[in-house]
Amino acid sequence: MDRPGWKPFLRRWSEEWLSSREPGPPRPFEEPITAPRLGYPPATEDEVAAAEVRLGCSLPPSLREFLLVSNGWQDLGDYVRSLRAADELGWVRDLEPYWIEAYEDEVADEEEEDGHVPDSRLIERSLLVSLEADSAIVFLDPMDVDERGEWAAYRLASWSGSGPERHGSFAELMYDLYARFHALRRPPGATADEWDARTERARLAALAGEVEGPLAELAEAARFGRDRARLLRFQMLVMLRRPDAPMEIQVPLSHAGAPTWSLDATLLMAEILPVLHAADERTPMGTLSMLSFLTDYGSDQVRRLIMDYRARAAEPGFRPRLGPPHFESAVRAAVTAPDPWPALHEALESWRPLNDDHIAPISLLADPQIAPLITPDLGRRILATPRGKDRKPTSD
After folding, report:
1. Is the pLDDT of residue 392 over 80?
2. Span of 31-45, 205-219, 288-302 with lowest mean pLDDT
3. Final residue of a domain: which of 157, 185, 213?
4. Which of 34, 92, 109, 279 has its CA at 20 to 30 Å from residue 193's CA atom?
5. Which CATH number belongs to the domain containing residue 124 in this structure?
6. pLDDT tens-digit series, residues 283-340
7. What pLDDT does 180 receive?
8. Percentages of the chain per state (helix, strand, coil), in multiples of 5
9. Per mean pLDDT, which of 92-106, 213-227, 249-263 is the most reliable?
10. How big is the CA angle at 303 (ends 297 and 309), to the nearest 5 degrees?
11. First vs last C-alpha separation in the chain
12. Which long-range contacts (CB under 8 A, 24 or more apart) does 10-15 make?
């Protein structure tokens, strides 16, 4: 990212951070921030050049350009409180060597295999970029350089339970921290509005029969804390029989902070809970299902609805509904055929979403007779079929 790219990005981050900041005095480690920016005056070319001479190398382009826009940064969120100015940059081994000691390998003379670098060696050779953080660190690896001259950038938190998290450049790492800030603080403004609009376009594209494009767009919107995107993506992943599908709704159904989506009880009872309940019944003893997790940690409304659904499911003769009566009848007739797809494809003509958050007939996966027939391939065929009242022609 060059200077013309950094300036509006950092300006927006500053404005959104200040608009979402909790009222009251700063925390003990903070200085009051009153100006409409988290950054500092830009470093001069001479200051950056002096840092490069002192370090004995040229800085990667996106970091260099960043410093020439803001010589340091306050509060990146995600437990990283500030970044170093040009004259504060240095090697981890010189400034914070205890990180190297904390990640020393059990075998001191372990050789690098298959391109893997032991964490302690990676940290030891890297440039320290973070200044203040809560048991976390941000650093750049001068030995991992791409064709643009960018160094791989890492975020490492000792409490995360995982090793260094790699990004292709300092700019990519900053973008990820910005997304994490949005997911945590959920500030209103242009960025949230943009991702809500993109989520809606992805919904329409999904109903039109597109698959990979909406999946990717919804994943990025979810990364920015848009709960509706997670709900829509959950439905697509369920139809694809992806085992990670339930994780998409853990946050929106249990989020303790400000939600970015209003839960619809009808959709939850008719489509989402039947799928989670069916998955719960297949979950091995001793393994926590998403339904069990939400029973304990879901919002008050979600927990009440779970109890209501479980009571209904325990009644004799209970069978989950599959959608509108005509659609359900057509589906049940289709699955008795040797090849259910032609009839199922025709049945999709009569399927309609319950509301604007509903994009796929996921209740099919709640029926014990129908669910085994919905293979990943068949689920993809369903998603690739234009459906619902918002159907439109698609080239996919």
Report:
1. no
2. 31-45
3. 185
4. 34
5. 3.40.1580.10
6. 888 889 999 999 999 999 999 999 999 999 999 999 999 988 989 999 998 888 888 8
7. 92
8. 50, 10, 40
9. 213-227
10. 135
11. 33
12. 10/37, 10/38, 10/39, 10/69, 10/70, 10/73, 11/37, 12/189, 12/190, 12/191, 13/38, 13/178, 13/181, 14/38, 14/39, 15/189
* pLDDT band, residue 58 (cuts 50/70/90): very high
Residue type, 161: G
Other Cβ atoms less than 10 A from the Cβ of 164: the count is: 21
Q: Per the structure, how many domains does the chain have?
A: 2
Residue 151 pLDDT > 80, yes or no?
A: yes
Question: How many CB atoms lie under 10 A from the CB of residue 241?
Answer: 16
In 3D space, the residue among 242, 270, 210, 247 whose CA is nearest the CA of residue 374 turns out to be: 242
Residue 44 belongs to what domain range?
A: 3-105+118-185
Are the C-beta atoms of residues 181 and 78 closer than 8 Å to each other? Answer: yes
Is the pLDDT at 110 greater than 60? The verdict is no
Tell me the torsion sign for CA atoms 258, 262, 266, 272: negative
Nearest CA-CA partner of 295 in 287, 283, 304, 282: 304
For residue 368, the model assigns a pLDDT of 92
Q: Over the stretch 356-366, which tens digit does the pLDDT of each residue have?
A: 999 999 999 99
In whole angstroms, what is the distance from residue 61 CA to residue 1 CA?
A: 8
265-272: long-range contacts, CB 8 A cutoff, minimum separation 24: 265/301, 265/305, 266/354, 266/355, 267/354, 267/355, 267/357, 267/358, 268/302, 268/305, 269/305, 269/308, 269/309, 270/321, 270/354, 270/363, 271/235, 271/354, 271/358, 271/362, 271/363, 272/234, 272/362
b/e code 170-205 from CB counts within 10 Å (16+ = b) = bbbbbebbbbbbbbebbbeeebbeebbebbeebbbb
Smallest Cα–Cα separation from 93: which of 126, 68, 129? 126
Query: What is the Cα–Cα distance from 303 to 250, expressed in whole angstroms?
Result: 13
Rg (CA), the chain: 25
Averaged pLDDT for residues 29-38:
52
Same domain for 77 and 225, yes or no, is no
289-to-159, 167, 213, 266 alpha-carbon distances in Å: 25, 32, 29, 22
pLDDT > 50? residue 27: no
Do the beta carbons of residue 72 and residue 130 sit within 8 Å?
Answer: no
